[in-house]
C-alpha cells in the first residue's frame, strides 16, 4: 500500500532511500503516477491526488502548495516536493492498519460464550460417541453398526463452525467499513454501534464545514480594521474554527497583527489575552455579561444578525466593547441526507451547539433534525448525554473538536470526524476518515449487518450440530456423508460472512444492504 523507496532531496541532489530511512522534515520528491511514501505538506508544486485507498473518495483531489497529503495516496500529473511531517508508524496509513488489526483481533462477548461452549464441546461429543456404541450394542446387539455410528458422530461434530461464526463476520465487516472510510477501533465499539437508538451531532465542523467566515463587522469604538486587528491578534493562539476565521479575515485585509501574551482559551465561552498592553476578550455575549461588561451598544445589530443565523462574536478591549463580528459557517452538502439516513434507520437525531438559539435552530431546520439544544458548553453536552442514557437510550455522539472530547467519552459510542482534532479522534471509538456525516448512518448500517451475520452463523452452527449429531448416532449418516456435512457447515459459515463484502455505503438511501 506504500512504496518501499522514496526520493529524498538533500542539498540539491536527489537520493533514493528505503522508506524507513526518511526522517521528519525531509524533502521528498514524488513524480506523476507514483505513490506518496509519507505524510507531509506540499512545499512545491500542485497536482491531483488519488486518496481513494484511504478515504474512499473516488475522484482525485486537487492539492496545492501548503496543503497536506497522505502517505499511500497516488500522485496525479504534477511533480510534488513534499516536506515530511509523519513517517513510518506515525503515518495515517500505518495508524489505520493498526486500528483495523486491533478491531479484528478483539473478542466480542458472544465469542467468549462460544469459546466456553467449545471447551466442553469435545468431551460431550466423545461421551455421545461412547453412549452410541453402548446403546447400539445393548438395544440392537450390533457392535459394528454402533462403531460406525459412533465414528459418524465424531466426524460430523463440528466445533469449527462455532469458532468461525463470530470472527469471520467481524473481520469482513470491519474490513468493509474501513474501505468505506469508517475506522472502528475495537469489537466492543462494533457491538455497541448496532444498538444505537439516538445520535447527537455537534454543529461546527460536523454538520457544517467547520470553516466559518467573517461576513460582517460593526465597530462601536474606532474603525473596523482596529476591531479586526484586536480580535484576530488574541486568536493567534487558538485552534477554534472561529479563531481561524478571524485570522483569515485579517490576512485578507493585509493587517499586521501584534503579538499576544498570556493567551487563555475558555472552552465554551471565548478567548482572552493581552495585545499591545491591553486586555482583549473575544467571545459570547453571555460570557461578557458574566464579567460585568455591558453589551447594550451592540445588541440591536447582534439580534438582527442572529435572527439571520449568524454567530455573533463580541470583542472587548480594556473592559470596553470595541465591536461585534458576524460569522457564518456553511452547511456540509451531505448533512441533510445524513439526517434523513439516520431517520430511515429509526434513530433519533439531536443537535447540541454552543451557538445561539437562532443559529442552532437555523441549522436544525435546514437538516430537519429532531431536536435542537443551543448555548451548550462542553459540560452541558456531557450532562445531556448522561440524561439520555439514564432514560435507557443508547447514544452515539458525533464531533470533531477539543470541546467535543468530553461528550465523545460520555456517549456509548463516540464518532469523530477525521478532519477534527487529535484529542477528539483519540477519545472516539469510531473515526470517519472523510468529513462526511453520511458515514455515521453507514457505520450503524455495517454494524447491524455484521451482527446479523454473526447471529445467523451461530444459529446455523448450533442447529447443524443439534440436528446432525442425533442423525449420525441413529445410523442415518455414514462417516463419508458426515465428513461432507462437516466441511459444508464450515464453508457455509465463512461464505455467509463473506457476503458482507457486498455491503456498500449509501448516499441518500437509509435501506441496509446485506
UniProtKB/TrEMBL annotation:
Keyword Signal tagged: no
Annotated membrane topology: Multi-pass membrane protein
Stored InterPro entries: ATPase_P-typ_cyto_dom_N, ATPase_P-typ_P_site, ATPase_P-typ_TM_dom_sf, ATPase_P-typ_transduc_dom_A_sf, ATPase_P-type_domA, HAD-like_sf, HAD_sf, P-typ_ATPase_IB
A GO molecular-function descriptor: ATP hydrolysis activity
Residue intervals passing through the bilayer: 120-139, 145-165, 454-474, 480-500
Alphabetical UniProt keywords: ATP-binding, Membrane, Metal-binding, Nucleotide-binding, Translocase, Transmembrane, Transmembrane helix
GO CC terms, sorted: endomembrane system; membrane
Pfam families: E1-E2_ATPase, Hydrolase
Matches recorded under SUPFAM superfamilies: Calcium ATPase, transduction domain A, Calcium ATPase, transmembrane domain M, HAD-like
GO biological process assignments: copper ion homeostasis
Location(s), subcellular: Endomembrane system
Gene3D superfamilies, alphabetized: Calcium-transporting ATPase, cytoplasmic domain N, Calcium-transporting ATPase, cytoplasmic transduction domain A, HAD superfamily/HAD-like
Family statement: Belongs to the cation transport ATPase (P-type) (TC 3.A.3) family. Type IB subfamily.
NCBIfam families listed in its UniProt record: ATPase-IB1_Cu, ATPase-IB_hvy, ATPase_P-type
Name of the protein: P-type ATPase A domain-containing protein
